[in-house]
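Hi V.,

You were right to ask for the full record rather than a summary. Here it is.
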Amino acid sequence: MKEYINWKPDEDNYTKKGEIETHHTIHSTWFKNKVFSNKNLDRLETLKRAENFLNQELHGYVLDAGAGNGYASVDIAKRSKVVQVHALECNVPAVDKLIRGNFTLNKIPEEKYELICGSYNDIRNKKYYDYVVCFGSLHHSSNLLKTVNEIYSSLKPGGIVIGYEPFMKDETPNSVYIKKESNYKLVQGIVNVRESDRDDHFFRRCEYFTSFHHSGFDILKFQTVREKGKIFDAEIILKKPENPPKVIPHVWASFQ
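Predicted structure:
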């Protein structure tokens, strides 16, 4: 049986312990209940639309950052031009049971995937991936710029990010986020958790754009595809330049 890779997510100071514990419980419950399928079919359609938009099929090495139950990883692994997909989650039950079980259920050969227990704030493969997929995972970042910087550094020059994330309008006042912190939420109908104890943020559109630009990405697409009251969903495509800049002057940052 393929061993999972341990990047020690508990050592990530940017991720709240409540976030890891919440997903530990959710993923354990999903595995117990054999929740392997994807209720968000629109996210898999995002992959197809991205391939059409880019005029290229997914290929090479792909990181599924925040893989959940592994539904997207399985879909990616089935593509003939993909050498390997790396499914990253922040807790052992997810990678060692849930995602592994999904690969097994779908008869994906072990050489087509790696299981990684880790944080996307500490991606240890640098300049390695041709694509990074983020489906409903970026908004769980407690430090969006840190997360996006890590994703940027993990991509080869010319590498692509394909995302599907919720966002809010630029004008959303701070009071909305402050009020949310004091609330409790029944997450996935499984865990009742205080919002301030976990990382779950509906970032403003401008906050996404700022982190993408400041990390060095070119934004190829940020398109609203759904509206749910004050929350919108966007399909995102980013590209790391073929010749990445070493310095972005207004950011006062340098890059490897």
